[in-house]
Input
Amino acid sequence: TGNTVTFSQGGARVAKLDTNKYVVVEYISGPQVIFDSVYTVSGVTSTLLGTNNYGSSGVSGAPNSITSAGTDRIVYIRRDGFTPTGSKMVAITYSGATGSTGSPVTIDANTSSIYVVSYLDTDTIMTVQNTTTGASTSIPCNVYTVTGNSFGSGTGTSIGTVGSNSSRSVGVSVVSPGVFLLRAQRTTSPVFSNLYLCHLSGASIVTDQTSATDADAVSGNLTPIGVGGKVYETCYTGVTATNRINEITVSGTTFTKKVASIGITFENAPLILLDSTNGYYYATNFKSSTEISTNIQGMSNNFIGIAQSTVSRGAPVTVLIKGVDTN
Output
C-alpha cells in the first residue's frame, strides 16, 4: 500500500487527468464552494501538486457524478446550490495544477433528479438520468460535444424502459469509443434490472441488445471494461445464497452474460476491477460502521503449498499442490 490521502469533506469525487495524475473534487456545504486537489502518482505514492477554490459563483452544489473527459479535463454534474433547484454540468480544464471552469449548463430543473455522466468518445459525453420519482418509462439521455471547457447543444434521446412511476438507478460502463453498457435498476416493487448494449451514431444512441434477466436483483453496479471485452456486474438480491457477480463479454453489437460467482456475502457492494489483464476483481462489503470485508475473485487469496525450489519474496515460484501419484 502507498500513502494515505485524506479528504476534508464527504462526497469527494475522483477522476483521472493524465498518466500518473488525478484530481479530487470536493464540496464545502457551509460556504457552498467547490474546490479540488490535483495529485501526481509515483509508484504507490500520491503527491499534492496544487489546489483550486472555485468559490460559489456558478459552480456551487455537491457533485454527484464525475468523469475524465480526455487529458487534463473533467466533467461533473452537481446539484444546484445548498437547496437544490436542479442539476447543472460543469467542465474543468487543467494546466499543471491550475483548473479553469467553463459556464455551467442546466441539464434538468427537476430537483429530485440525479444524473450519471460518461465520456463516450473524443470530445463527446453522455448524461443519463439516474434517480427520480414518478419517472417516465424510458431512461432519458443527452449527448453533448465538449470543446475545452464549453459544451455544445445537447441531443436528447432515451434508452429502454424500467416501468412507469418508479424510482431507478443506472450504471454505465464504456466498452470502447462510442460503445457502452447501461444497467438500469428499478428500485420500487417489483424490482428488476435490465442491461442494454448501445453505440453512438452521430449524436444519436442506438440500442443493439437488451437483456432483462435479473428479476431478483434489488441493486448492483458495473466495473470498467477489462481486457477481452469483459465487464463485471454485482447483483445483490438480499439473500446470500443468490447474491452473485456476473461476467459480461462484449463482441461487436452483442454481449453474453454468465454467472462468475454466486453465494457471495455482500450488501450493495461497490465492485472494482483489480487487474484488467486477467479479469481479477474485488467487492468490498460494508457490513457495519466498524467492519469491512473483501471478496476477491480470480486469484487465490489464502493458499498453502509446497515450493519445489528456494523461495524469494516477491518472485514467481512453482508450488506443488498435489502429491505425486507414485509416492
